[in-house]
UniProtKB/TrEMBL annotation:
Gene: nadM
Pfam family of the protein (one): NUDIX
Organism name: Caldimonas brevitalea
Keywords, comma-separated and alphabetical: Nucleotidyltransferase, Transferase
Residue stretches making up the Nudix hydrolase domain: 215-355
Organism superkingdom: Bacteria
Protein name per UniProt: Cytidyltransferase
GO MF term (any one): nucleotidyltransferase activity
SUPFAM superfamilies according to UniProt: Nucleotidylyl transferase (SSF52374), Nudix (SSF55811)
Length: 357
């Protein structure tokens, strides 16, 4: 609990987190926020991601975890603001500000209402707390050393074994209601698939653990547009088995990024046009390098945007590690946001302008 004197009351308190899943550190912050104001807005990050070992719970499920951890009288004081991962600090900050302003208006609060932002300063992952100078920062000491990754490792590492016994080791780290939620979650059909992907990623990272330096992987991707359609593949292997992605893969030793992009495009979709055509249709090449963009680890990709114009859709077929390839109407993409691998929806958004700026 905080060591500073109680702060004066404010109109609204704010807590930002991923809550994947809720643990006692989160709960301490939430209780502090509820003690500062009659209303508390909880900003839930990574809100529209596909289910993965890093993001196993939907934002609605995380909101329910937060409610269940509180007394009945406090649950009605919570207001939830889901925010997507933009992998762009400026856009993310703007989305949080706009969402909070809208909630203030809906609650009848004036634009100049006093807002307290609750959080604890731990490392670079909490730098966002300094991005809202118009809100009063209420720092709180960290409760223990628990983090969501440890809880997820216990949850998925117990697959095929006694889940109850594994979760029993977390009784001092998470609220009882969260542990009950995790037990129920482990009985759902997709739990086994997520656990298998967790094991695949774990083995992948272990294979690189003996490298003299933390590895940085370099990949390529291709966003290919024809008229009102864009070319997507469906992943045939973990990570992201069954999810949609733009065609791409790892760069080869003796290839440029552009050459690797064309090779991966042909291998995964069968699309093969004349080199002069592809060069004429290349509209942009952008590096996507957010540290958290890939579950594999630090992965930097060079994304190439090809606009082939208005023409008949070329025939495509899934190949290599793609289970399928298809031309998808661009107007459908926003409805598919929670079906994409890593930051591939963001990649499409960057080139095609899918979400409001």
């Amino acid at each position: 609990m905080p060591q500073h004197p109680p702060s004066p009351a404010c109109d609204l308190s704010l807590l930002i987190g991923r809550f994947q899943p809720l643990h006692n550190g989160h709960l301490a912050l939430l209780q502090q926020a509820l003690g500062l104001a009659p209303r508390c807005v909880v900003v839930i990050g990574s809100a529209f991601q596909a289910r993965t070992p890093r993001n196993p719970f939907t934002w609605q499920e995380r909101a329910q975890m937060l409610r269940l951890a509180l007394p009945e009288a406090d649950r009605g004081r919570l207001h939830f603001l889901p925010v997507r991962d933009y992998y762009d600090d400026t856009r993310w900050i703007g989305a949080v500000r706009a969402g909070v302003a809208q909630l203030q208006a809906e609650q009848g609060l004036p634009a100049h209402a006093t807002v307290a932002l609750v959080g604890h300063l731990k490392d670079a992952t909490s730098d966002y707390l300094g991005c809202f100078p118009s809100w009063r920062l209420e720092p709180v000491q960290r409760v223990g050393r628990v983090d969501g990754r440890h809880l997820r490792d216990v949850l998925f590492g117990s697959a095929g074994h006694a889940v109850d016994a594994s979760l029993a080791t977390l009784v001092e780290l998470a609220p009882p209601s969260t542990l009950d939620f995790l037990r129920a979650f482990a009985a759902l059909p997709f739990y086994a698939e997520l656990a298998e992907e967790w094991r695949t990623l774990k083995h992948y990272k272990e294979a690189w653990a003996s490298a003299p330096y933390p590895p940085v992987f370099v990949t390529v991707d291709s966003v290919v547009r024809v008229g009102s359609h864009v070319l997507l593949v469906k992943r045939g292997q973990a990570p992201g088995k069954g999810l949609y992605a733009v065609p791409g893969g790892f760069i080869e030793q003796r290839e440029t990024a552009y050459q690797s992009a064309l090779r991966e495009l042909k291998e995964e979709t069968g699309l093969s046009l004349l080199d002069v055509t592809m060069r004429q249709c290349l509209k942009a090449a952008v590096v996507f390098d957010h540290p958290d963009r890939s579950q594999r680890g630090r992965t930097i990709t060079h994304a190439h945007y090809f606009d082939l114009g208005e023409r008949e859709l070329p025939e495509v077929q899934g190949g290599d590690d793609a289970a399928g390839a298809e031309w998808v109407p661009i107007e459908r993409l926003t409805q598919m946001e929670d079906c994409f691998l890593d930051d591939h929806f963001h990649m499409l958004d960057h080139f095609l302008g899918l979400t409001p700026r």
